[in-house]
Amino acid sequence: xxxxxxxxxxxxxxxxxxxxxxxxxxxxxxxxxxxxxxxxxxxxxxxxxxxxxxxxxxxxxxxxxxxxxxxxxxxxxxxxxxxxxxxxxxxxxxxxxxxxxxxxxxxxxxxxxxxxxxxxxxxxxxxxxxxxxxxxxxxxxxxxxxxxxxxxxxxxxxxxxxxxxxxxxxxxxxxxxxxxxxxxxxxxxxxxxxxxxxxxxxxxxxxxxxxxxxxxxxxxxxxxxxxxxxxxxxxxxxxxxxxxxxxxxxxxxxxxxxxxx
Length: 261
Ligand SMILES: [Fe+2]
Ligand SMILES: [Fe+2]
Description:
The protein has about 260 residues and is mostly helical. Helix content is about 75%, strand content about 0%. The two termini are about 15 Å apart. The structure holds fe (ii) ion (FE2) (2 copies). One fe (ii) ion (FE2) binds next to α8.
């Protein structure tokens, strides 16, 4: 089976934006603005993302769909969702442990709702909600596809493995998350693959548009999470494609590379 050319074009449109999100994290690690305080803040925000944006929707879904568990399809769907819940909780736990090494005790989940939220992340969630409202299933596909942003925070975090202290801890937490999140992104692509035949070329174009908008906003969200290590001019440039494209791992995702016409 060959990789659908529409998926390949969609991925092509993403590669510079994924690279931009990677640049934000990479810049932060050695940035002069970095302090113990900014470390506490980004970790708190990441805990929020893993627990409240990641684990909680799956917990709600499991509760809402519990009474409907019956045949093989519903059982495997349920299992898939509680697997995601478990993984997101493990991610939360990993970053919470780094936070505790820096700050002593973690806030409880209720307090994290306030302490871990930040406006640029709220705006990303609002943009996704608007895309779902305005474009229905296409909006949801865009969201699934952009979730995790090609795991660039985690791959950049893993590069700190040779360092001592908190950086080494960050690298270990990121390594735990990386494989799972790559899987979550593949889930988004698989859902897209199922629908491949059903999308018109206008819908593919629209999907590309939504995905670009969400990825572009992710760069702003990530920069704010890290207390803005990337200066405004550079931020605008990388949102507009100034980064070298990060090449998508087709072998890992599809077991093959696309044949390009
Ligand atoms: Fe996660
Ligand atoms: Fe995830």
